[in-house]
Design goal:
It is built from 10 helices and 13 strands. Helix 8 runs parallel beside helix 9. Strands 7, 8, 9, 12 and 13 form a 5-stranded parallel beta sheet that branches. A 4-stranded mixed beta sheet has the order 5-6-11-10, sandwiched between helices. Strands 1-4 form a two-stranded antiparallel sheet. The protein folds into 2 domains: 227 residues, Glycoside hydrolase/deacetylase (TIM Barrel, Alpha-Beta Barrel), CATH 3.20.20.370; 51 residues, no CATH class. The chain is α/β, with parallel strands linked by helices. Strand 5 and strand 6 form a beta hairpin. The structure holds zinc ion (ZN). The site of zinc ion (ZN) has 5 residues, from loops.
Length: 314
């Protein structure tokens, strides 16, 4: 078994926050219009009027992150983390990220499905022509199985996030295997798909978890970028943590049912598209990585990850 290793230093990257954490409501395009008519004496009042009318709308808006100047609040020391893609022969069986040279990104949404929220997320992804991956929880699938056929029909990948969403680091291997099987069974009942893509809850994956996963024949997906959307840090902070940070081969960890994630997605998608990235599922990311490794006779080197912490087991 060949293994390609990289030590990534998630260093003293600061947590950035904006001086005013309230949502910004004025759209840049409207501000531009306001500025262009600024030659008249009423320019200032026009801008205020436009901003206020946006604030009164039903959709809260905020300015894109790159147009703002963040303020450094305090540096956060992050531990040295080992982020290693694991290979078994020509097959990658544990992924932190895909091929860094590839202009593609996998958006992943964990912890669903949720009857109302997932429908809205699917609507948004369809509108944006983005294919993503849903790491679903088996017991939630059993409560809303009708959502999974739509995911598949619209080109998304449905993947296994266990049945009960427990911390597998505390579980014996037999329980790990049972959680993987029960999760996969729930998905199969709902949409007929037998998935072999797996993400352990919270990303917890000790040797026991990995050996259980290997025995179940599943590929384990972790992530390269985690903006911690589960903590609801604010849409602007989420954008700050992703825009300009996400790069080729990224596996981006997001969560289904988080309103702030819904808020940033259109802008995030537009910016990544503008940078030339395509959106793929995790299985596509893995197979493209394997193809790149085969072409180069060795696994591509990874790059640093942007992954501050384990998300909580909810
Ligand atoms: Zn989860």
């Amino acid at each position: 078994m060949s293994q390609n290793q990289l030590i990534s230093l998630s260093s003293t990257e600061p947590i950035l926050k904006f001086p005013n954490n309230k949502p910004r409501f004025a759209r840049s395009t409207r501000l531009l219009i306001s500025a262009s008519i600024g030659v008249c004496a009423f320019a200032a009042s026009c801008s205020v009027t436009l901003a206020q009318s946006d604030m009164q709308g039903s959709q809260p808006r905020y300015k894109p992150v790159l147009s703002q100047k963040p303020t450094l609040l305090r540096p956060t020391q992050r531990p040295l983390e080992l982020k290693v893609n694991t290979w078994k022969g020509q097959r990658v069986i544990k992924l932190w990220r895909g091929d860094p040279a590839g202009k593609e990104i996998a958006l992943t949404f964990d912890d669903g499905p949720h009857p109302a929220a997932t429908v809205r997320l699917l609507d948004l992804l369809r509108e944006q022509h983005v294919k993503a991956t849903f790491f679903v929880v088996g017991k939630k699938v059993d409560e809303a199985p009708w959502l999974l056929p739509r995911m598949l029909a619209e080109g998304h990948e449905v993947a296994n996030h266990t049945y009960h969403h427990i911390n597998l680091d505390n579980a014996p291997e037999a329980v790990v295997m049972s959680e993987i099987k029960l999760g996969a069974d729930a998905i199969q009942r709902a949409c007929g798909l037998r998935t072999f893509s797996f993400r352990p809850p919270g990303g917890h994956h000790n040797d026991n978890v990995l050996s259980g996963a290997e025995k179940m024949g599943v590929r384990t997906f972790l992530w390269s970028d985690d903006p911690a959307d589960f903590a609801n840090p604010g849409a602007e902070v989420l954008e700050q943590r992703l825009i300009g940070k996400v790069s080729g081969g990224a596996l981006v960890l997001l969560h289904d049912g988080i309103e702030q994630t819904m808020d940033i997605l259109p802008d995030l998608i537009a910016r990544l598209r503008k940078d030339g990235y395509k959106f793929v599922t995790v299985s596509q990311l893995a197979s493209h990585l394997e193809a790149a490794a085969a072409a180069h006779k060795t696994a591509p080197q990874q790059t640093a990850t942007n992954s501050p912490q384990h998300p909580p087991i909810r």
